[in-house]
Amino acid sequence: MTMLHLAVIFLFSALSRALVQCSSHRARVVLSWTDYLRRVAPTALATALDVGLSNWSFLYITVSLYTMTKSSAILFILFFSLIFKLEELRAALVLVVLLIAGGLFMFTYKSTQFNVEGFALVLGASFIGGIRWTLTQMLLQKAELGLQNPIDTMFHLQPLMFLGLFPLFAVFEGLHLSTSEKIFRFQDTGLLLRVLGSLFLGGILAFGLGFSEFLLVSRTSSLTLSIAGIFKEVCTLLLAAHLLGDQISLVNWLGFALCLSGMSLHMALKALHSRGNGGPKPPKNLGSSPDLELLLRTSQQEDEESEEGYFMTQGQQ
Predict the structure, then answer these.
(1) Which residues does the annotated region (Disordered) include (predicted)?
(2) Can you give the C-alpha Rg of the chain in angstroms?
C-alpha cells in the first residue's frame, strides 16, 4: 500500500512539474547525482521508514492508539532540532518535553487495546520521524539546492523512498502478495478494481497531505508542523472513537490532553518569542527561527534590481 502511494505521489509530482514548466516556460530544478545521493538520500530513507513503520503498525493497534503514540514525534523533533541547532535550548522546552512525555505515559497506561508490537513500531516511526522532519527542514531551506517548492521536493524524494522500502516489502509481503487472490491471482475483477481504486484514492490523499506538510515546513519549521498537527490529531481520535468504536479510557484522554497542553504551550511561547524579537529573523546556518519567505523576497528583489540594471544599460546603449 505504501509503495503504491509513493508511486502515485511521484506520478502527480512529475505531472505537476510538467504542467508548470509548460505554462511558465522555465525548466524545473533537477539535482546532480552527487547532491541527490548526499542531500536527498538520507531524508528519503528516513521518510520511507517513518511512513512504512507507521502503516505497518495498523496491523496491530487501533487508529486512536496510533494517533496518540505518534504524537510523541514532537519529542524527537525537539531533540534533533537541538542537535542540528535548529532550536535553542530553553527552560520552556524542558517543560514542554516533560508535559508531552507525561501525557504519552498516561494515554498508553492500561489501554484496553494496547499491543506491544504495534506500540514499538509507532514509537520507532516517531523516532525516525524526528530525523525525517529535521532533515526535511534543512533540505527545503537550503536555497542553493532549489527545492523550496514542495512539488520539486516530492519529485526527488519518492524514487529513493520506493527503493528504501522495497527490501522490507520483498521480505515481509512479497510472497503473500504474489499469491493473493485479491491482486495477482485475482478471480473477481470487481474486487481487484475496488482494491486498486481504494489504494489510488489513498495515494491522492497522501499527495495532498505531503504537499501541505512540505509547504508548511518550507515556510516555517518542522517543529511548527508538529504543533500544527494538534487539530488533526483531535479530529482523528474523535473519528476513530465514533466510526470505528475504538475504546479510549478517561486516563487515556487525560494523557492526550496533557500532551496537547504541552504542544499548545510551546506554540504560545514560540509566538511570544517571535513577537519579542520584533518578528522573524533570517536563519543563521538554519538557525532557530528560519523564515524562507524573507529569503525568497530578498532573492526576488535582487533579481528585480539586476533586471532593472540590465534594461537601463541596454537603454543607454
Answers:
(1) 297-317
(2) 22
Confidence of residue 283 (pLDDT cuts 50, 70, 90): very low
Helix axes 250-276, 91-107, angle to 10 degrees: 160
* 35 to 32, 136, 169, 274: CA distances (angstroms): 5, 14, 27, 33
How far apart (Å, rounded) are the C-alpha atoms in residues 106 and 258?
Answer: 9
User: Would you say 245 and 219 are in contact if contact means Cβ atoms under 8 Å apart?
Assistant: no
Q: Are the C-beta atoms of residues 86 and 286 closer than 8 Å to each other?
A: yes
Instruction: Please write the tens of the pLDDT for every residue from 71-110.
Output: 777 778 778 878 887 777 778 777 877 887 777 677 666 5
Please state, as a whole number, how many other Cβ atoms lie within 10 Å of the Cβ of residue 232.
11
Residue 6 in grid coordinates:
509513493
Mean pLDDT of the chain: 77
pLDDT at 245: 75
Count of helices and strands (H, E) across the chain = 14, 0
Write down the pTM of the prediction. 0.67
Q: Which residues contact 164 (CB under 8 A, 6 or more apart)?
A: 44, 45, 48, 49
Q: For residue 118, what is its C-alpha cell?
A: 504495534
CA distances from 240 to 68, 119, 143, 192, 251 (A): 11, 17, 40, 27, 17
- The three cell numbers of residue 198 are 481504494
pLDDT digits (tens, 9 = 90+) for 135-166: 888 888 787 788 888 899 999 999 999 998 88
Judge whether 165 and 3 are in contact, CB under 8 Å.
yes
DSSP 36: I
* Burial (CB count within 10 angstroms: exposed 0-12, middle 13-18, buried 19+), residue 189: exposed
At residue 19 the predicted structure's pLDDT band, cuts being 50, 70 and 90, is: very high
